[in-house]
Every structure is written in C-alpha cells, then in structure tokens.
Records
---
Amino acid sequence: MPQDSGRRVIIVGGGASGVLLACHLLRDPAADLRVTLIERRADLGRGIAYGTACREHVLNVRAANMSAFPDEPDHFWRWLVSSGAAADATCSDPFCFVPRRLYGRYIEDLIAPMRGQGERPPPLHVVRGEAVAISDTRSGVAVTLADGSSHVGHVAVLATGHEVAAASGGFHADPWTAPAGAGIATDGTVLILGTGLTMVDYVLSLIDHGHGGRIVAMSRRGLLPQVHRRVEPMRFDAADLPYGTDLVYLLRWFRGIVKWNAERGGDWRAVIDGIRPFTQTIWQNLPLAAKRRFLEHLRAWWDIHRHRMAPDVDVRLKALIATGRLEVVAAKLIAVEPAGSLAHARYRRRGEAVVETLDVAKIVECKGIVTNPQDTTNPLLRCMLEQGLARVDPLRIGIEVAGDCAVVDRSGRTSSRLFAVGPLTRAAFWEIVAVPDIRVQCAELAKRLSAGRVATRSSPGPAALIEP
Ligand SMILES: Cc1cc2nc3c(=O)[nH]c(=O)nc-3n(C[C@H](O)[C@H](O)[C@H](O)COP(=O)(O)OP(=O)(O)OC[C@H]3O[C@@H](n4cnc5c(N)ncnc54)[C@H](O)[C@@H]3O)c2cc1C
C-alpha cells in the first residue's frame, strides 16, 4: 500500500451517495484528503436506483436537477450532451427524463479520474468488499470487511443506502429482478403489491419482456404517482413558512397556499417544488408526535405528489390502464394459498367486506423499501446497533444522526468520527432520498471534513491499510 500523508475518510457504500461524497471530498486537492471507498458490488454509483439495465426505467427527476454539484446545476446536462448520451436518449433539453442507467454512467465517469492518474498514491482507493464491523480506535476508526481485512482512517461515513427487502420466494418475486430472471411466464397473471414508482417500473419491465397476461397492481389506497409538468417553483421566503406548528395547522397552511395559487391559475406542483428547499427545516421543527402522524396518515399522499412520474411514463401507464392491460385495485391482500402452479390471492377491496380471489402466477413485492434499521440485514448496521455505536431513531425510519450527519450512539453521544449520508439519515432530514438533496448533504459534510472540523485525536499513520 502506498504511503500518504493526508487525512483519510472511509466511505462505506459506493452507490450514488457514497460516490457523490467522494467527489465532493476530493474536489479541492488543497484539502489533502484521502478517501477509501468500500463497495460490495462490482460497479460504483449504481445501487438499486441506477443499476437497472431496463431502458424504460427513467429518472423521476429532470436532467436539469440531477447534477452532482449544487453549484454547477448544469453539470449533468453538459455530461449528457458531451458524452453523446443525450442524443442516444433522444433528449432535447434539460427538462428530459433520461434512462436511469445513464445516470449510473455519469456517476462512474465522475469518479474515474480520482482513481489515480499517475500520482502516488491516488486520492481515491476503491475497495471491493462488504463491511461487517466498525470500531472506534485510539487513532481513528477501523472498518473490517467480510474477508477479514481492516481499513483505518480518521473518520468513516456510512452511505449504505436502501435496505432491499428480499422476496420470500415461491410465488413471490422482488422488483429488482427482471421478469425473465424471476421466471415470470409472459401469459401468467401477475399481482404487483404496491402502486408507486417501483410498481410503474415493474409494469414497464413486464411489457418490455413481452408480457401478455393480466397485470393487477394493488395497494390499500390504490393511489398512483402524479405526473411531472413544467412549472416554475413558487418563491417562498424562510419567514413565510410555518415552523414548529402541529400537523393540522401545517396541512391547513399548505392547502391554503395550493388553493390560493390555483385560484390564480397556478399548479400545486409549484407549491411543492417551492417549499422543497425548506422541507428539511419544516420536518426538523415538527414535534415527534406530528412526524408520527404524518408517516401514518399523510405519507402515501405526500409520496405520490412529491415523487412524480416522467410525462412519457404517465402516458404509457394511462394507456395500459385504458386498454385493460393493467388494473389498479385499492384493496388489502389477506392470504396467499398455493394451488398447483398458481396461487389463490385472497383480497378485500377498500371499504368492502367480501373477500375476492385472484389466481396468480407471481406476486411482485413493490411495497417499498425496508426502512426500519432494526430489521436490517446489513451486517455493518447490525454490528453498529448491537455494539451501541448507533441507535435507531424513535421514528424507526433511519438511524439517529445529528444535524451535521454525526451518528448518535446508544447513550445519546454524538460521534466525532462516524457520520452517515443518504436515505439512512431520513429520520433527521426526511427529504433526503433524491440526488438534489443528497448532493447538498454531501457537499456540506465534505466542507466540514475538509476543514478538519472533526476530531482527529492522532494520525492513523501512513500504513493506513492493514491487509488480512
Ligand atoms: C428504484 C429507485 C429509483 C430512483 N430514482 C431516482 C431518480 O430518478 N432521481 C433521484 O434523484 N433519486 C432517485 N432515487 C432515490 C435514490 O435513493 C438516490 O438517488 C440514490 O440512488 C441513493 O443512493 P445511495 O448510495 O444512498 O443508496 P444505494 O443506491 O442503496 O447504494 C448504497 C450502496 O452501498 C452498498 N453497501 C451497503 N452496505 C454495504 C456494506 N456493508 N459494505 C459495502 N457496501 C455496502 C450497496 O451495495 C450499494 O451499492 C431512486 C431510488 C430508487 C430505489
């Protein structure tokens, strides 16, 4: 391992968040940082969002908002044009919604120059492997991988992203396996549980795969995501927003603004997009009980308005519904009983008492991503929770972190060496799953780490990597 003098940051997780953080940390060579990026997958920057090979799976954020750098908002668009990807995706302006796999390529291109161009040592050291344990040492932190190797640095940042629920097998499939891989016969009836964006993706995958059988999408409310429109976000001043109120007041305020705007010919999207820069502060000022009520009663409504479909996808979805190829049902699945090569799916429509039966060949679980870290199967998170290095937030949608992304341990102490970014921090920030928010979080954390505003009791020394 080459010797180096800079402060070393270990990032666990090389999905979009981990790579964005590495880019922000290494943007300014004067900061003299070294980054070790640990990722268990073969590719970087993909994760479940941008690892899809399906061309029909497009970004749900316009290209104009997907730059890696908040201070260079057209960076992604310029990459699309200069790499030729915009032409391939028939994308004529920054409002377009390009295939997600292109975004994975963009992220990978960003990081390529940092992996070394002759200088010794390169600023970025990428390690393929699964992190299983982390410990606070006298000189910094040590991250242990499943192969027994250990990597030490001054600080470590968790960017472990989404917890993907594994399908229970048999008649059940997960949405991250393409229909062919999941063994879905093209003439079989497919029941999709969930009616959000993941369902939409899976329906498009099925159609792409030549599926001619029945497709039924089911969720308790049967709500579909709304569609994007070109709107100018409403301009709000921080002083216009209600902070620290209860949920009823906040909802009334929000509805009032939407109504006021609509009466002047405006669009509700402009209100949601306008308050986006303040959503995290609104969330942080909500009382805990109000946050709980939001998650229980309003989250589904918020999600379909906030996380919208690309216009082309909406057109395709509506055509599939209109021609009967896709049925959307508001119902609750009660039981699944195997019956030979099929399964009887028993369900009850919303507001009905009678139980109906659908004979299905496959059930695809698109109900969302596991968010309670208590249920995590990630060995690193399990280890941290068991050892008390981290604790689950009272809302159970992430681990507890402070406003500067520092991890809070079991006793409530804020770490000076362990940080987290991305979806894992959603309990603290709520609006932190999409790139426009993650890039800001990464830029701010990088600024703090570059400025040395973290404790470094003593240097871990040049032999920063200890082989097994
Ligand atoms: C299907 C889908 C589509 C989306 N589309 C968009 C979109 O269009 N626009 C947008 O802005 N946002 C989108 N998002 C939101 C998405 O959360 C973010 O854009 C971003 O991908 C989050 O990246 P991440 O790195 O935090 O998480 P992930 O993508 O989950 O990546 C985490 C990485 O950490 C690795 N890892 C985890 N644990 C370990 C370990 N112990 N050791 C080593 N490696 C580990 C994983 O292998 C993975 O590569 C989408 C999300 C999903 C699920």
---
Amino acid sequence: MEFKEVMKQRRAVNFFDSTQDVTETQLKQIIETAALAPSGFNLQPWNIIVLRDQEKKEILRKLAWDQPKITDAPVVLIVLGDREGFKKGNSGFEKDFAESVKAGIMKQEQYDWFINADQFSLRNVI
Ligand SMILES: Cc1cc2nc3c(=O)[nH]c(=O)nc-3n(C[C@H](O)[C@H](O)[C@H](O)COP(=O)(O)O)c2cc1C
C-alpha cells in the first residue's frame, strides 16, 4: 500500500474488544515497528511501559479523563520520552556511543563533541 494511502486510511481507535488478546509476539512486532521511527543521532531516547494488569489500567484510566478504552484495551503502552537521553552518563546515550565506536561510525576522541552535539537539539527548549 502506498504511504499516502496508509496515512489516509489510518484512524485513532476509540473502541477495543477486551475479549481479544494481543500476544507477546504481536506486541514485540508492534514495538519493533514503532522503534523504526527516526531520532536524533538514533539515540532512541524513549522507554515503554507495558500495562496488561487491569488494576494498573484502572489507575491510568482515572488519570486520563476516565476513558473506557484504557481498561477495554487488552494492553496499553505508555511511551515515555527520555529527556536525559542525550546526556553524559545516560545508559542509552553511553551504549549508543560505545556501539557507534565499535561499528566504526564514531571515534572515541569524538566523545566530547558528541556530548555537546545536542546543543542544537531539544535540550535548549525543554
Ligand atoms: C498527542 C495526542 C493525544 C491524544 N489523546 C487522545 C485521548 O486522550 N483520547 C482520545 O480518544 N484520542 C486522543 N487522541 C486522538 C485524536 O483525538 C485523533 O488523532 C484526532 O481526533 C484525529 O483523528 P484521527 O487520528 O482518527 O484522524 C490523541 C492524539 C494525539 C496526537
């Protein structure tokens, strides 16, 4: 399907069938597909909390205007942007840099430059 068609046909889903399950395999596929989204320096500074527990979904529902779809959906994902994800010492940041060095994309001596490279990023507005 053409990308334009995908965009035209997609919808925000408001009703979920609570009798249907989302398997771990399906969930993994969904998250892996979503993680293909671009990010600065490919740092992918996000974390995902997976809620399947009904009591926890009830708590979230109360925090989200009591929207029934939160408890109806068999699984709810909370996607958290990591505002520290581009800072020295952040596990994601350090892992990304180490892997970039290993892959030959970056050199170890570029570390300080990389730490400061986000000066044009969102760090300055959040
Ligand atoms: C940041 C964001 C927050 C949203 N929050 C809710 C929400 O709390 N409840 C809801 O029913 N829809 C929510 N929506 C869905 C929007 O209402 C929906 O995307 C918009 O009405 C356009 O409809 P469509 O996505 O079907 O084209 C949210 C969308 C975005 C982008």
